[in-house]
Design a protein that fits this description.
The protein is 67% helix and 0% strand. It is an all-alpha fold. It is flat. It starts with a helix and ends with a helix. The mean pLDDT is 79.
Length: 284
């Protein structure tokens, strides 16, 4: 009985000591308070930037659907260009009226409906062949526009591209498209593009007369003579000949160069007479 009394007294003393400021009971930390918080920008960024576990590779990025569309568009343009070039070769070989879409499809080793997927008619094919050739000349005009050289040199550069275009597979279409039975709208477009080329050549001739790099002449007649000589290449030139289109164009430009270059030596004229000839040429 005495032992029990002693144990009860000791337990009461322990409880009393805790209440009177004795050793406090141990405080166990709250597990939730020790967790890092991810609702701040810094913590969220650090969480995103955490390194990958060892042995793991980052997931592959999904392919862009627009990339596939661009590739399909590029593939379609390449095939359409092949159809136009094949048509130009057939027109050059057999003529427009003697060439059918079946002939063009056979040359490409495809079906006729495949050709219709890229063009709507044989008439549109001829027109596109014409545009493909003329665009090479138009591009040359744009290129020389920024050159700080005499007008005669700019004209020569354009005429070289002109000659190469006419000697290409598009030459026959460039020269003969207007003579075919095309719709009025297409005929007007062809005439408009040809007039643009003609006016561009005349403009360079006038600029050459003004800067002294071209002998005074009639710009209109000179442009007709130059373009007529170049256009005739399409009637006799064939790609299997010994000279390339670029060599033919260069040879023609050399001839033009001799005729357009200002005269020297015994053919020199005084400044006053030259000014009069320049004014007369530019007035035409």
């Amino acid at each position: 009985m005495g032992r029990i009394t002693i144990l009860i007294s000791m337990m009461r003393a322990r409880v009393t000591g805790q209440r009177d400021g004795g050793t406090p009971p141990p405080v166990y930390p709250d597990a939730r308070a020790s967790r890092p918080r991810y609702n701040t920008p810094t913590a969220m960024n650090s969480r995103r930037a955490s390194p990958l576990s060892a042995g793991k590779t980052p997931p592959a990025a999904a392919a862009s659907p627009w990339r596939a569309s661009r590739e399909r568009l590029r593939d379609r343009e390449l095939k359409r260009d092949a159809v136009i070039r094949a048509a130009a070769r057939e027109f050059n070989r057999k003529g427009y009226h003697n060439t059918s879409l079946d002939d063009i499809a056979a040359a490409l080793e495809v079906t006729k409906p495949t050709v219709y997927y890229y063009v709507t008619s044989k008439e549109q094919l001829l027109f596109q062949c014409f545009v493909a050739g003329v665009e090479q000349i138009r591009a040359a005009f744009r290129q020389v526009r920024q050159l700080a050289v005499p007008a005669r040199e700019r004209l020569n550069a354009v005429l070289r591209h002109y000659g190469e275009a006419v000697a290409s597979e598009f030459g026959w279409c460039m020269v003969r498209a207007e003579d075919q039975d095309l719709s009025p709208a297409m005929s007007r477009h062809i005439k408009s593009l040809k007039s643009e080329i003609d006016q561009g050549i005349r403009r360079l001739i006038r600029e050459g007369i003004q800067d002294g790099s071209i002998e005074p002449c009639d710009p209109k007649m000179t442009a007709f003579a130059v373009a007529g000589a170049l256009n005739w290449i399409a009637h006799w030139y064939r790609e299997d000949r010994s000279l390339t289109g670029a060599q033919i164009a260069s040879a023609f430009v050399t001839v033009f160069e001799g005729g357009l270059r200002p005269r020297r030596g015994t053919l020199r004229i005084d400044a006053r007479a030259r000014r009069q000839r320049v004014r007369g040429a530019l007035a035409r």
